[in-house]
Known about the structure:
This protein is mainly alpha-helical. It has a domain at 37-118. Helices cover 80% and strands 0% of the residues.
Amino acid sequence: MNLPLLELVFLIVVLVELIGIVVCLIAALYLAYTKLDTMLESLSNCPAVMTRAALKNGGPVGKLFVLGGVMGVVARPSIYLRDGGASPTDLANFPAPLKRQLIVLQLTSWGLVASMVLIWGFSKLID
């Protein structure tokens, strides 16, 4: 099978993208299964998180949903502090290494989504 160079590069980029998505999903599941209780204890006074907390027993999807809520509160606290969805003391007492991991995971996930959109746009441009 002989692929033109452009198609080979496109294939490699798409495969790297898919591997990145799988790695992010595995990292999110790891954090959800090992650190979710710590996160919920740290944010016990945040209504935006505690309304989702009951779903932590809902299997992998429920855990990822709760983790997404925690990520939103930790990564973008100004939105939740404005409307009373987050407690400033809970955010100040949130473990710093865990906060860094959540922010990196969220930024990486958004970067992968953006690059996927760019790849799709580039494929439409080529056709």
